[in-house]
Design goal:
Length: 192
């Protein structure tokens, strides 16, 4: 029961003190769950992030659910998920009650401008940390640089190209690379 409560409190703190959504929370989740509490390895967090990108829901919620399930099965998954969602829900609910007057307060409006910058820095920090710890193979580097260039071109030239189509193309490309390069290697290993 202590582990379930610890999961709830940990993810409630992450949910309460992180602005900017799931991408901004990744750096905090890594700091707490990987480095301090050692609940996950860095590779597991990378895998969760990749899977969370292609599944419904927020990255942070998916990370919390996975971590909770790994540490305390269903009860842990439920506690971690509620922990990360509840603070945001309460804050948004309170803001919505007073929203008409909320953004008119100059301190609040200026705070949100500062929060935008902080969120950008948190996202950049998470990306740089993941890049530094990425396996040093050529294929992941090529995929990363190609994806970045394609997204920059789409945004820079304002091409009307759906990110869903880009994800489908990336999945098909990954499958093609796997079929062309990994399956022949596995057959060679089995023949020996």
């Amino acid at each position: 029961m202590n582990r379930v409560f610890d999961l709830f409190l940990t993810f409630a703190k992450i949910g309460l003190f992180t602005f900017g959504g799931g991408y901004a929370m990744i750096a905090i989740i890594e700091n707490i769950c990987v480095e301090r509490k050692k609940w996950l390895s860095h590779d597991e967090l990378l895998n969760i992030t990749v899977i969370a990108e292609s599944t419904p829901g927020s990255i942070a919620i998916n990370c919390a659910t996975y971590t909770g399930y790994k540490k305390a099965k269903f009860a842990g998954a439920l506690a971690a998920t509620i922990g990360i969602v509840l603070p945001s829900f309460i804050v948004i609910y309170l803001i919505s009650m007073f929203f008409n007057n909320f953004l008119e307060i100059s301190i609040i409006a200026n705070a949100f401008k500062g929060i935008k910058i902080a969120v950008g820095i948190l996202i950049l920090d998470a990306a740089l940390t993941m890049i530094k710890k990425m396996h040093k193979k050529n294929l992941p580097k090529i995929i990363m640089v190609s994806s970045c260039c394609i997204m920059l071109c789409i945004n820079f030239f304002a091409w009307n190209f759906s990110s869903i189509n880009l994800m489908i193309l990336a999945g098909m490309g990954s499958l093609l690379i796997f079929v062309c390069f990994d399956i022949p290697k596995q057959k060679d290993c089995q023949n020996k």
